[in-house]
Amino acid sequence: MNGDKNLIIEQITIVGGTHGNEYIGPFFIRKAEQTNIYQDNPIVVSTLLANPEAFTQARRFIDQDLNRSFSSDILTGNQDQHECQRAREISRHFSQGLSQNESGQHFIIDLHSTTANMGITLIVRNNEPLNLRTAAYVQKNMPETRILLSDMDHVQHQSLNSISRFGIVIEVGPLPNAVLRHDLFEATERVVDLVVKFLTLSKTRKEPKLPDEVTVFKFREKVPYPRDQEGELTAMVHKDLQDRDYRLLETSHPIFMTFQGGEIRYSSEPGYPVFINEAAYYLEDTAFIITDKVEASLK
Fold first, then answer.
1. Is pTM beyond 0.85 here?
2. Which residue among the candidates 83, 128, 171, 278 is catalytic per the annotation?
3. Is 171 annotated in the active site?
4. Catalytic residues per the record (predicted)?
5. Which residues, 6 or more positions from 241, have their beta carbon under 8 angstroms from its beta carbon?
6. How many domains does the chain fold into?
7. For residue range 252-263, what is the model confidence (pLDDT) as tens digits?
8. Do both 194 and 52 map to the same domain?
9. What is the span of the domain harbouring residue 258?
10. Which residues does the annotation place in the binding site for Zn(2+)?
11. Could you tell me which residues are beta bridge partners of residue 273?
């Protein structure tokens, strides 16, 4: 992976509440603003509560998913749904936050939680080398962290992070919606601190040594729920698959149990499932996502 290691990030924005019922982000922002923990950092660190109305109502969104609302059609359109308007406001906020010649040097840290057993996951949306090096630095210091490369997931091209070349998404779980959990809150704090530290060291030309390669889980495909002709669920995630995120799923392993008591088995090539039985993904008809475990070059 070749990249411009001389590139300097001028500003970091920590975003929370992209989904209003994921509480770690909004309360992280509240704590950061109250304590001013980054006020003396060499890189400007700011915060943004992405969807305050949804957070106030403890809802994922008001009209539609904000994290699916940053398409060019929406950003250049005049749709009146709440999240469409909010996406345009956020896009303008970032475009005005830096001068024209610095617009590509803004790093976004988007804080999320998941009901799935994902542990600490860093989602890298694209092949931008700085993003992957940042994630690798976190993993070096927190070996339990996993890196999910979602460059082939077209949904990610409409996410909040897509408005900048530079950024990562932090996902922690399992965590029920509209709930705070101390250990996962602390884990999020540590990841954010490591990201800020790495970007700051990079700015001062003291980027720490990293391995030549890093293990990533690369997006392959989404697996939908079994449904009948009316679109109703006919099965649920099998107990032998539940909570087995990042564990190898072999062909013929049971993945669904029908309401009539029959097993549905996995028929595709082996892979590593993630976001198994994520609550929010019922709306998107995604039971889990299959990834491939590969080595990505950091050179």
1. yes
2. 171
3. yes
4. 171
5. 249, 253, 254, 255, 273, 276, 288
6. 2
7. 999 999 999 999
8. yes
9. 223-288
10. 19, 22, 112
11. 290
